[in-house]
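Field notebook, page 471. I keep forgetting to write these up properly, so this time I am using the form the group agreed on. The chain and the ligand, pyridoxal-5'-phosphate, are recorded exactly as supplied. Prediction of the bound pose follows.
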Amino acid sequence: MSKKELYKKIPKVDDILNHDETIKYLKSNSLHILKISINKILDNIRNDIKDLTDNNYSDYVINCEIIVKEIINDALKYNKMNLKNVINGTGVVIHTNLGRSCINKDTAMEVYKIASGYSNLEFDLKTGKRGHRYNHIEKLICQLTGAESAMVVNNNAAAVMLVLNTLSQNGEAIVSRGELVEIGGSFRIPDVMKLSNTDLVEVGTTNKTHLKDYRNAITDKTSLLLKVHTSNYRIMGFTESVTREDLVNLGKASNIPVYEDLGSGLLFDLSDYFKSTEPTIKSVVDSGVDVISFSGDKMLGGPQAGIIIGKKEYIEQMKYNQLTRAFRVDKMTLAALEITFRQYLDIETAKLNIPTIRNLTINIAEIIHKAEKLLNILCDIKNLHIEMIQDESQVGGGSMPLTRLKTYALKICIDNMKPNVIAKSLRNCSYPVVGRVKNETFLLDLRTIEEIEFNNIKKAFIEITDGGKNV
Ligand SMILES: *Cc1c(COP(=O)(O)O)cnc(C)c1O
């Protein structure tokens, strides 16, 4: 058969549209999307034919049935979201790759309400004039943290940049060598400082920094004393760092503002639940630090945001910095933040309703209860061998790197399947499940799994054991 004849055999668009399978598909799907797929797949075939050589084109078959199937499968992909929910069986509560903090239903509803209609985002209903988007939450944040003033930007990285650019542009900021952190995704304090036009003055050594190191580094150009919470690592052993209080006193005596990048930001003390090394935001405010920033979606358990609080004179300057316009948050973020902060007005409500806080403070009996229940649901799947074991979960989000939370997990083995193959297959299920592989075993940590997810976990295991898909 010549190439010309092959081209002729390509089905006509009308033939495809009148095919039984297509007609069935179009009963509940869009014709426009189908046409995109028809053009794409037919183009591919034309290109394939063009590229055929004398040696292989006699083997090339054109089959209308197969082509229709291919087109429908391609069109179906357009209906599927790439961004989708996964089940977090890793036990890492604030898992940056899995979206950090989850919001609860009340929060999601508030976001839906605000985002789906017009709102008073920047409109003062009393005067009918332009209002400010930050006014909706400033008082609430101040009430909960004890700060004089507050504002919000896109994330804490933007907050760091805005604070440095506003308070220390063309000046020098002094920071301890023990605190020059890099956070996942290559956010490096020294690089952010460069971008914000701030000169970094490093003092002390990696393991020890004394107050006199800061004092000796102060010059006419010093515009900021910076403290960075070493969220994702600890320097252990022979160490010394300057206390917040000492740094504040030095700042006051030298008339230089003190800024602390707190990273996670915890609104209430968690030491009743586990050995917490995070200071509460309020305690940092009370110690007299002038400006503080923290993330919205780490320990706070809200949406992605960077929250900046502190003395009014400094926060006001930041509100007028042009960068604020570039870093500003959307109404969806503001709605989610406002309701999240409102939930903190009653700590018991926060513990129960904010998923991140609930997963951090959940008691061990509840985790055991969940583990037993899931074990019962999964135990009748063939080839599955399950054992409930005690294990440790992590806080995550670069917070409290050394803290381990006692937890229970299901250790799951499948006949003829290695643990990393189980992990890979579950990730590729229609409802992906992400577990952890530890000491050559596959584990699902029940701390971060909700009961409403149990059925989807069961479906995933059936999919990977029965269907043999991805094995
Ligand atoms: C996480 C973190 C950041 C970055 O915060 P994002 O909200 O992720 O932008 C900055 N500084 C510290 C100390 C952090 O822990």
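OBSERVATIONS:
- The chain has three domains: 3-78, 87-95+359-464, 104-348.
- The chain has a mean pLDDT of 92.
FOLLOW-UP: compare against the apo run.
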